[in-house]
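Before the break, one more example. Copy the sequence into your notebook; we will annotate it together after we see the structure.
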Amino acid sequence: MTTIVLNIHNAGLIKMSTMILAMGICYGGAAQVIAGIMEWKKNNTFGTTAFISYGFFWLSLVTLLLLPKIDPTLAPDEKSVAAYLALWGLFTFGLFIGTFRLSHALQSVFGTLAVPVFLLSIGELADVGNGFKHFTGYEGIVCGLLACYTGLAQVLNELYGKTVLPLGVVEKS
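Here is what the structure looks like once it is written out:
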C-alpha cells in the first residue's frame, strides 16, 4: 500500500503529504522490519532480506525527504538521489533473480519494482519532464497492486489451506 500511495503521487494524482510520509514510516518502514524479523525466525533468508531491507528503504526515504526541511543544506543533489535509487534498483534486480526459485507472483512484484526505481534514477539525471515521472508512477502503482495481491493470496491460501488466489508456484528441480 505504501508503494501505491507514493506512486499515486509520482503519477501526479495527489500531492506529497503527511499521509504518504506516515505510510512510509509506519507501514512501509516499521511493519516491514517487523515482518523481516518474523521471516528470520522462520529461517527464510529471502523474506528476511527483502522485508528488512525495504523497511529501512522506506525509513531512509522519508528521512531523505524530511531532513532538508530541518536544515536545507542537508538536501541531496540530483546525482546523489540518482545514485541512491540506482543502488536500490540493482539490489531489487538481484532479488528479482532470486524470485525465479519462488513464485510467478513474486517475480512480477520484484520485476515491476526494479523498473520504476531505475526509471526514477534516470529521471534524476536527465531532463525528462513530468510525463516521464508520471509514467513511472503508474508503473509503480501496478507494482504496488501486484504486491497487495501477492500478500493477500499468501494470507488467504494459508487461512483456507488451499489455493484461493493463485501465486504461480515455481516447480523446483
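The chain has a mean pLDDT of 96. The helical segments are 2-10, 18-41, 45-70, 78-98, 104-125, 129-160. Try to locate both features in your own notes.
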